[in-house]
Specification:
Elements (H helix, E strand, L loop, with lengths): L4 H6 L3 E4 L7 E4 L1 H5 L1 H15 L6 E5 L2 H12 L3 E7 L7 E8 L2 E8 L8 E9 L3 H12 L3 E10 L5 H7 L4 E6 L4
Parallel strand pairs: 3-4, 3-7, 7-8, 8-9
Antiparallel strand pairs: 1-2, 4-6, 5-6
Helix pairs in contact: 3-4
Length: 181
């Protein structure tokens, strides 16, 4: 019997203990990207979920959300919008600051990245505390778009981010989670 896509993908995510600091279990998605079959299964999981939805664009969050978001956008025959860390976009931008565990960060989007009423799929690699995903969704909303769903490969539910994203009224889909690990 073939494993479910979720199990297949989760089994190929590398856990790096104590990185970037002691006590952190870093979930490394690079093995998903390195193997052609695994990368295809990953992309196809998202494409099959969204291929029949009425979407106008895919937005990806800097930096790992770019990898997945751009490929999914291509496969869905949609445009791709980068949501970048502060200071990386060359044209007029809209910015959103959010809190990190220690301090804050800012993400930006070009002010003309979407049109009013555009239906957007927002993609990142994982949901930890939810700050980046929520800030990205706020940016899209501020320029007139509607976030149809936020999506990620991994949910780290113990950090509370997925709960916060959903509480903000943002539908959320993740392929797998690492609860209790």
């Amino acid at each position: 019997m073939e494993p479910r896509n979720e199990d297949y993908i989760k089994a190929r995510i590398r856990t790096v203990p104590d990185w970037p600091q002691p006590g952190v279990q870093f979930r490394d998605i690079t093995p998903l990207l390195q193997d052609p079959k695994t990368f295809r299964v990953l992309v196809d999981t998202f494409v099959h979920r969204y291929m029949d939805q009425k979407l106008d664009v895919v937005a990806g969050v800097d930096a790992r959300g770019f990898i997945l978001g751009a490929v999914v956008a291509y496969e869905l025959n949609l445009g791709f919008v980068p949501i970048r860390k502060k200071g990386k976009l060359p044209f007029a931008t809209v910015a959103e600051e959010y809190e990190l565990e220690y301090g804050s960060a800012t993400v930006e989007i070009h002010c003309d990245a979407c049109h009013a009423g555009d239906r957007v799929l927002l993609i990142d690699d994982l949901v930890a505390t939810g700050g980046t995903m929520i800030a990205a969704a706020k940016l899209l909303t501020r320029i007139g778009a509607t976030v149809v769903e936020a999506a990620a490969i991994v949910d780290l539910p113990e950090l509370g981010g997925s709960k916060l994203v959903i509480e903000q009224g943002i539908p959320l889909y993740t392929i797998c989670d690492f609860a209790g690990h």
